[in-house]
Write the structure tokens for this entry.
Amino acid sequence: MGLYDTFSTDATKEVEGTWLDYGDFQVKIAYAGGANKKFTNLLEAKLKPLRRALDTGAISNERSNALLAEVYAKTIVLDWQTCPDTEKPDKMVQGIEDELGEIVKFSHEQVVKTFKALPNLFVDIRHQAESISNFKQEQLGEEAKN
């Protein structure tokens, strides 16, 4: 595998997203960077008034995580589907499971709320959104033939 095969990504996939399968739910995410200019522009706009605080280390982790969760909810998380019936795992519906086990409407506000309640999920989604391997051109068909 060459340099370009290793590090190039599919710009369309960076913007249109890829699904992360967590079993009982799945999240469609865009790439955090690259061709996803919505992410870059919103993050820059949110950070601009805080530049001095960031430079001096005067911003708390809680505040920076809240800001980042908002940016991710608006520019990275494109869709969210949940399986309402474990006996029919192939029947996903759009929505997010809340803390009571109810499926609520997918919205940016609900994503932020979920990230706040489940910080480890937010960490994983951030990691996945920054990983180029999730946004490479489909090579499964080629690998299956070999």
User: Anything to note?
Assistant: Residues 3-135 form one domain.
